Amino acid sequence: VPRLLVQDRVAVILLSSPAPFTHNGYLPPPTLAWLEQALRQVPADLPVIISLHHPVLGDPRHLDQYPLFLELISRPAFHVRLVLSGHNHERRFWERNGIWFSGVPKLPKDRSYDLVRIQADRIVLSRKDLGASPVPYLEIPLAPPARPLLPEVSLSSGPGPVGDAQLLLKF
To answer: What is the pLDDT of residues 19-32, one digit of tens each?
Structure first.
């Protein structure tokens, strides 16, 4: 059952994407209609995060209606900033038309996991190992950029989410 959660600084939309008897994801027309209505209910200046199991970008076979979904969430009237997904079992992210798409990995044997934190002016995605501080790997401004996205890239050595190096992208 889809859900819309509106908070002080962000709105979160939760969608269910499994299709019966297949590995692919599916958003039936009633779900896409509900999503459009939910996006219309969100105040125009409030950033939106959408979460669903199947990835939208990367391998288009994972979500059957990805062109319709992309067209809907890319409309200028809606302020979608981030789409979170799983299914690929690896950490991947893309930017398309000012919207970030992030695939988060499954819970590995070392019990690390990913965090999404909403700060005053940005969304921060981090990897969290048990007993350690979160290691940020992506920071997304809550306001869409008025210019082309050019990342500030930081690379440091030491244990991190990518083996012995830590990579942080800021936009």
So the answer is: 666 667 778 889 99
Q: Give the other-Cβ count within 10 Å of 62's Cβ.
A: 20
Best CA proximity match to 79, nearest among 134, 125, 41, 133: 41
pLDDT > 80? residue 65:
no
CA dist 55 → 14, 60, 91, 150 (Å): 13, 8, 11, 24
Please name the residue that has the structure tokens 């009237």: 77
Q: Which long-range contacts link 149-157 to residues 24+ away (Cβ below 8 Å)?
A: 149/95, 149/98
Contact call for residues 50 and 34 (beta carbons, < 8 A): no
**For residues 28 and 11, what is the distance between their CA atoms, to the nearest angstrom?**
22
Q: What is the mean pLDDT of residues 136-145?
A: 85
Q: How far apart are CA 34 and CA 101, in angstroms?
A: 21
Give pTM, 2 decimals.
0.80
Number of Cβ atoms within 10 Å of the Cβ of 119: 10
Dist. CA 30–CA 5, nearest whole Å: 19
Rounded Cα–Cα distance for residues 134 and 137 (Å): 9
CB 69 within 8 A of CB 32: yes
Q: What is the mean pLDDT of residues 146-161?
A: 51
- The CA-CA-CA angle for residues 79, 103, 88, to 5°, reads 145
